[in-house]
Write a sequence for this structure.
């Protein structure tokens, strides 16, 4: 599976929109300074994600969301996700180390 995701900085409230083939590894990279554009704003928390069958679909959705340029539109997307998601939270483990680094929301 491939993902379009939105992160929110716990410190600044900034959003980051991206696409990846491995959501857990990518979030780990954002929170451990492996992504230059997000290093100054960590820690990051997963705000929203969508699953796709191809990277092309995930990239198209990423571009669509980035074109909105509106914090309100992104916030509404996240609120809709939380309503659908309710309390389904999955703990996950960091790659290559086993330390718990955060939580992701799982769509049913």
């Amino acid at each position: 599976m491939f993902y379009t995701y939105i992160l929110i900085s716990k410190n600044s409230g900034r959003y980051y929109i991206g696409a990846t083939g491995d959501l857990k590894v990518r979030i780990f990279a954002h929170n451990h300074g492996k992504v230059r554009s997000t290093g100054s704003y960590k820690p990051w928390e997963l705000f929203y994600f969508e699953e796709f069958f191809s990277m092309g679909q995930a990239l198209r959705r990423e571009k669509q969301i980035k074109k909105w340029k509106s914090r309100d539109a992104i916030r509404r997307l996240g609120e809709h996700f939380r309503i659908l998601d309710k309390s389904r939270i999955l703990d996950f483990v960091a790659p290559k180390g086993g330390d718990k680094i955060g939580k992701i929301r799982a769509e049913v």
Q: What stands out?
A: Helices lie at 23-31, 55-68, 71-85.
